[in-house]
Write a structure and sequence with these properties.
It is a single chain. With 451 residues, the chain is mainly beta. It has 2 domains: 175 residues, mRNA Triphosphatase Cet1, Chain A (Alpha-Beta Barrel); 256 residues. The chain has 4 helices and 33 strands. The strands form 3 sheets. The protein has a 16-stranded mixed beta sheet that branches. The protein starts with 5 loop residues before the first strand and ends with a strand.
Length: 451
Amino acid sequence: MAAQMTFQRYELKYLLNPAQKRAVLQAMDGHMGLDQYGRVTIRNIYYDTENFRLIRRSLERPCYKKKLRVRSYRQVSSEEPVFVELKKKYKSVVYKRRLSLPEGLVSQSLSQNTPLPVSSQIGHEIAYFRSYYHPLIPTVFLSYQREAFYAVDGGDFRVTFDDHILYRQDQLSSPSATSSNVDLSQLFSDRDFEIGYDEESAVHIPLGSPSTCDSDAVTVDGSTITITQEGTYLLTGTLEDGMVVVQAPETDKVQLVLDGAHITSSTSAAIYIPSADKVFLTTAADSDNTLANEGSYVAIDDNNIDGVIFSKSDLTLNGAGTLTITSQGGHGVVSKDDLVVTCGTYEINVSSHGLSGKDSVAIANGTFTLQTGKDGIQSDNEEDTEKGFVYLGDGNYTITADGDGVSASSWMQIDGGTYTITSGGGSANGEAHTDNMQPGGGMGGMGGRRP
């Protein structure tokens, strides 16, 4: 099917939180269907004058405004097509006219201010726009994940959801600006970003000596608390020389909310997850929480538990509080599957790796202070070369590591963030690196596969 080149439609935009999005999707059920493309990554380069005339005009919210951009809906090479789009908006009506041309040809034409090799009405309109605002330069790269829905009754009504929004203001003239190494929809789910919870329906687990809970999904055996079913569990108080275990069916998702929770184990993990589909560890807003191991790990089953948080399942850390993790004899956070962090403040002081995910470590944002005897952030999968990767979207990182600041056995991508890294044994043996990362950047203190 040939791509549509002209559009005229009304556009209304709303900012939704995850709960509101779920409510809209529920209301759409039976009336709207996901279009044939499913969830896609849209990549745009926007062009403007040197004094940002177009965006300044747009911010004034005029009844008429216009813009020029280059757009792709997937990763492209210089030989593959992208769209050159002239978009105008009068009141609430959007008029979009576009050309489909090879990326390399478009990049060359726009960077050298030469005409596009097209003789058509749309081509003439784009040429006039470029001439009127000459010279136009690339000013921002913007990407996001989109889900588009159509009306099942055949009407023209459409609903789109855009999230995982990223931007950069450099590396705008090369083919890489319209491509990306990472499909963020495969790294982060909507729920990874959801830090809310219903305190009334959550299962409350007051930690203490002894700990108590009247839920059938929770068993208490001395200082060991075991959670066996899907749900949200609110942990408060202090548990000395004990542990919280999540042993749920492999189809169950479990959320642990830490709200002033302090758990210490002398011989094992403070939180141990032998089985579940996925566990979300959420710090409550403005809460301070601590998890610690006092220096040794004694085997309790066939798993080699060696971290303060140790998970055999996918693990997500998020929240609006602070989590402090210490261990004199092991790692900080270990996932033997995928480790995701979307927000929160983390202070980790351990003798081995700080954050470790066997299949991957994907961080969207957060504040991290890591002091580690090995790598600060690490992913290593020797069995599958497509795994063992690290993705850092944004965040503030202060890492002092005897090993690498960040290490990945397969690949690493950094799209933003602020980094201060001292690696390889401190100032006597390595360099301290401070950088404000723009998307696609690289920096010192990063390592590949370690022996």
